[in-house]
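tokens incoming
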């Protein structure tokens, strides 16, 4: 049994139950293809067995590094982009205090985690440098290829800052690199400077790497229980890799439901959450599904909203705009904390009818009311239920999303483990920046921009 439950009852009237269950046999085949590594992208299936293969010594080493970093740093900078960034941020933001930056020690037991190398904004990095002038910090640079431009630029700048602040020898002790085991510019630099390193396994692509040191080290530094996260993923794996029916296998059900909706003319999936802390789970999910499925002129477009916030912005479009949308609600059944609406003698806002209720009860009715309103507006809704947000349930959820994504990609007939399309912008950027070897392209692009 897992804690992730898929409810497809609000697809009635949009897709027939038989249309969803019709995928079952294909899913059994694709499950076998994944486990036997006989399908497209089979060189990148290392993530499937990761939860069982993570060794105690790797976890212990990560925990020891996390303790050391916590002892000497107030701020911990994670440099990375895409799959080398989003998994860690998704888990940390889901689990941490909503106002973590405003807490100081001892209320916040771990260093404040901040991110760099996930954009090229000059103002962003200048602001970060200003903060890092004032605080003790450590950093981890993550790049599987070791050559990605955004993190490489950020690391060049931050390394210089750190060396000037602490001296080269101490800076070398405050930097950990997570990269390929033997190749790439980052690996070479790490060897030359004597940085501690962790390896991104060859057979795990960026967006499937959250259960490698790429995700685990930052999550541990942020003070969370990585053993429980991995245990959750392991429990989910035990179900998803074995069960062969839609009713028993939540990844089968989710993959089948979203493909049935896609086939019925709904090419846009909006992931909905009612907890601001889940915003980056949605961002990670968007990358996972968008990069895995959006190719060969097909794929479901993954979008995200945070309700009830976005009911006051995107809510209008979802209710009455182009009818190409379905929603998937990530519904959290129990909050970790309690706040009640107080009674008011004047009742000037007319809200005494909710006095005494917890905010969760109010949020829950908003969720149920929205679900029905959107279904009435011809937006089918899948609901993914999770009892609560903990390391264990998030570990389950991450593995569920990854396995379902692989199955769903195979149902769509694409390779869910490559990303050929991301090269196009890089080539243009290099040409426009005058990278040696790109001269002809530079000329052509500049003409087009004149
Ligand atoms: O999922 C992916 O493969 C990408 O999002 C990569 O993770 C991202 O481009 C960063 O690559 P790298 O880790 O090589 O710097």
């Amino acid at each position: 049994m897992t804690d992730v439950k898929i409810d497809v009852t609000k697809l009635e009237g949009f897709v027939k139950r038989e249309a969803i269950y019709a995928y079952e046999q294909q899913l059994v085949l694709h499950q076998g293809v994944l486990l036997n590594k006989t399908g497209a992208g089979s060189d990148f299936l290392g993530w499937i067995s990761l939860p069982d293969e993570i060794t105690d010594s790797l976890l212990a080493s990560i925990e020891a590094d996390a303790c050391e970093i916590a002892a000497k740093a107030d701020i911990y900078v994670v440099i990375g982009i895409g799959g080398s960034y989003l998994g860690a941020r998704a888990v940390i933001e889901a689990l941490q205090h909503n106002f973590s930056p405003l807490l100081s020690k001892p209320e916040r037991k771990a260093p404040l985690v901040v991110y760099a190398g996930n954009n090229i904004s000059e103002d962003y990095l200048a602001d970060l440098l200003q903060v890092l002038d004032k605080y003790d910090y450590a950093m981890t640079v993550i790049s599987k290829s070791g050559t990605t431009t955004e993190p490489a630029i950020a690391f060049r700048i931050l390394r210089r800052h750190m060396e000037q602040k602490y001296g080269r020898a101490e800076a070398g002790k405050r930097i950990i690199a997570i990269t390929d085991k033997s190749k790439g510019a980052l690996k070479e630099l790490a060897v030359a400077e004597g940085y501690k390193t962790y390896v991104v396994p060859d057979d795990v692509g960026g967006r499937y790497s959250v259960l490698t040191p790429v995700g685990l080290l930052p999550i541990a530094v942020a003070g969370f229980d990585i053993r429980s996260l991995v245990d959750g993923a392991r429990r989910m794996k035990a179900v998803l890799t074995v069960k062969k029916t839609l009713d028993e296998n939540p990844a089968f059900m989710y993959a089948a439901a979203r493909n049935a909706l896609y086939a019925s003319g709904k090419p846009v999936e909006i992931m909905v959450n009612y907890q601001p802390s889940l915003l980056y789970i949605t961002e990670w999910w968007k990358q996972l599904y968008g990069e895995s499925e959006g190719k060969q002129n097909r794929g479901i477009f993954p979008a995200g909203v945070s309700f009830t916030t976005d009911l006051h912005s995107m809510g209008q479009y979802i209710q009455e705009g182009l009818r190409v949308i379905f929603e998937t609600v990530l519904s959290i059944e129990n909050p970790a904390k309690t706040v009640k609406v107080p009674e008011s003698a004047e009742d000037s806002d007319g809200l005494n009818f909710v006095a005494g209720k917890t905010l969760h009860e109010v949020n829950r009715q908003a969720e149920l009311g929205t679900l029905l309103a959107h279904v009435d507006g011809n937006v089918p809704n899948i609901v993914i239920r999770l009892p609560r947000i903990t390391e264990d349930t998030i570990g389950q959820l991450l593995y569920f999303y990854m396995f379902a994504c692989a199955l769903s990609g195979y149902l769509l007939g694409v390779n869910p483990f490559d990303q050929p399309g991301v090269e196009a912008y890089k080539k243009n950027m290099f040409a426009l920046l005058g990278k040696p070897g790109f001269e002809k392209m530079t000329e052509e692009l500049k003409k087009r921009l004149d």
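note: The chain has a mean pLDDT of 96.
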